[in-house]
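Appendix B, record 7
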Amino acid sequence: MPPKQSTADKKPMTKAQILTHLSEQTGLSKKQVSEVLDELVNLAYQEAKVGFNLPGLGKLVVHRQEERKGRNPATGEAITIPAKDVLKFRISKTAKDAITPPKK
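Structure tokens (predicted):
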């Protein structure tokens, strides 16, 4: 039996590895799993403006960053950074607790 790798030594799973794993676990073909995954991503893109929730994982939301003051790093000149919408992913408490157990 090979020695177990620590999670610090591992790299994130590739799409192909994810498809293979989900295919083996669900009994679906890799093509079917790929279609479901692609449709889930497209749905997340469409629904992100109102919030897209993946139960047990988290929520994709658009957050409004207000206009603020900043400095040009090259000249030191004060500038105004315009307001903009940014996309954020809020991890669910369940996912947080599963990955990093709460302190007692």
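Remarks on this record: The first helix runs from residue 15 to 26. The chain has three helices and five strands.
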